[in-house]
Amino acid sequence: MSISLYELFLVLIIGQCIFLIFAIQYIPKKNTGANRVIQYLLAIYSLFLFERAMGHQFERDFLRLYGNIINTFYLFIGPLVYTYIRRLLFYKNGNYQLAYYHYLPALLYVGYCFFHIYYYDSIIDFKSYFTTLLFWNDVIFFISISAYLFKSSRLLNYYKQNEGQELSFNQTIIKYIEIMLIGMLVYMIFWWLGIVERFVVKLPIDIRMIWDISCLIFGIQIYIVGFYNLKHPEIFKIRFPSKNENIPKRKNILDEKEISKIQNLVDSFFEEKKGHRRPELSLSILANEINTTTNKLSWILNNIYKKTFYELVNEYRVEDFSKKINQNKHKEFTLISIAFEVGFNSKSTFYKAFKEITNVTPSEFIRKVENSQRQ
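The chain above was modelled as a monomer; its predicted structure follows.
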């Protein structure tokens, strides 16, 4: 049995997949529901890569007879990716499950696989039969994964648009998921090229090269998924929109007395308790601290303060930071240590928020303070 360098590379990736499946088990118990889904995806990826690397070692009739069973797992990729993102980004969705009908195509395909095995000996024109089978397999799998890729992209866009309403910091999770979805999009583009090359018109690139590139893209995604899950076990989530959640749209949700009460509690939390210094602060945490609901608090922020949660909290942090600079704390401590002290959780979030609020960089602000002190 001989094996090429490319096939050896795929085997190494499979080994990495297996390692990650077990390593994720030992991540601190954060996002366990999402991590369980990524383990399923890693197992599916391993299976596909194994078929690509070692498939030629099996007899042709064996693959024709039973190969379709492995193809069934293509119909699980889209639903699992969507479930993973849903569980990862939105709280109270740690055990979120898609409705059963999302997996119905896979169950129907399994039924077809058994029919195919039963019917196999009766096939007369193998070439015509398998050409038709391969075409519909490729089209169905392409439509399935593409549909859930679109659905997952919309979910990520919602998170990006509403992250500032509930979180007081930025997360690298956005870039990670974007890379993951872009990787899947590229994979689907190559898949479509494979369909065109095999069934429509010959392309300058060989079909085998197309599938090899596709497998490499799968491999790259494995490293991205595994690296992020191991390095960033904690993800801060936001609420998933409810179909009946129309409270923020209503202008008379609260009376003046309750508005004043909540506003005073919010002001006290930041000004007296210095709550903005908590780097993990989120809308749900603040609502719990002042004994109100996230819907009411969100309405107050949008209609009374006229700010997002991100804007409000970071204004307090920037103000706190500015006071420390005026007290010459920057001569004793680094800028980042002061930024962390006032509640920022990363250098990038600090610089971005400071520039947005003051229209100058921290260094420019310090120079202005020092110049004013000399006068």
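The CA atoms of residues 24 and 36 lie 8 Å apart.
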